[in-house]
Amino acid sequence: MIFKSEKQLIIKTLLFIYAHRCGAFAERTEKHINIVKAEIISQPYSGEYKERIYDLESPWNSQFWTWIKFADDYGNKTVGQFRGSPVAVKVSGKLNEIIVLTSDYVYRLESNELNIIEVKDEFIYQDVEISPNGIFIFHNYYEIEKMGNSFSEMEKIKSPFKMDDIKFIKWENNKLEFTCEEFINWNRVEIMELDTNKWEIIKKTTPQQSTVVKNK
Predict the structure, then answer these.
(1) Helix, strand, coil: what percent of the chain each, to 5?
(2) Among 1, 14, 64, 184, which one has the highest count of C-beta atoms within 10 angstroms of its own C-beta?
């Protein structure tokens, strides 16, 4: 038999736990929930994750899809389904933005609610990277571009020679190493660096032999 005083204690305890959980939930919802990780995955099982479809009507749409798993700073996971075959995805914590690159579109999302900011429907980019200061960097076959405030503000980075078949390789501090061929002269394969402090493309040789072209 539970006495009245024990019942009151149990009720008070349950009310305390409930109030604590509600308070923690309210505190969490007041904070900005940001996506901190995004990765390309295979098609998930139905119901495995909370899902959201990003589709655009166009007669030029392919029949392929990309699935991206997003994880926020609380560990919650959401999967986005994007039109086109997968190419790359990058998260800029400094900009609170995400770029999803597929064979059909370039999607620019805000990282709080995963809403679309803008979409570019021309497939001209083969890869995307993000600089240490949070700027998105794209390349097509021939040029490297950095994004300003929108897709309409893409700035081409000048190179010492006309490039072809660009491939991003790795980061060394603020420098992005990549390889490329010289346009038309495909026997010439060079290792290059993009200095994201000065926004210069440098031929990766000894300093005395380096060729630098600065953006004006």
Answers:
(1) 10, 45, 40
(2) 64
Smallest Cα–Cα separation from 150: which of 97, 201, 188? 97
DSSP helix/strand/coil, 11 = helix
Q: What single letter denotes the amino acid at residue 79?
A: V
Side chain identity, residue 137: I
Question: pTM for the complete prediction?
Answer: 0.79
Per-residue pLDDT of 67-81, as tens digits, reads 999 999 899 999 999
Residue 83, both tokens: 């039109």
Sheet containing 200-203: give its strands across: 163-172, 175-182, 189-195, 200-203, 212-214
Read off the pLDDT band of 213 (50, 70, 90). low
Measured between alpha carbons, how far is 63 from 59 in angstroms, rounded to an integer? 11
CA dist 140 and 128 (Å) reads 9
From residue 187, alpha-carbon distances to 150, 180, 202 in Å are 36, 11, 19
- pLDDT of 136-147, one tens digit each? 999 999 999 999
Instruction: Return phi, psi of residue 23, to 5°.
Output: -65, -40
Say how far apart CA 7 and CA 14 lie, in whole Å: 11
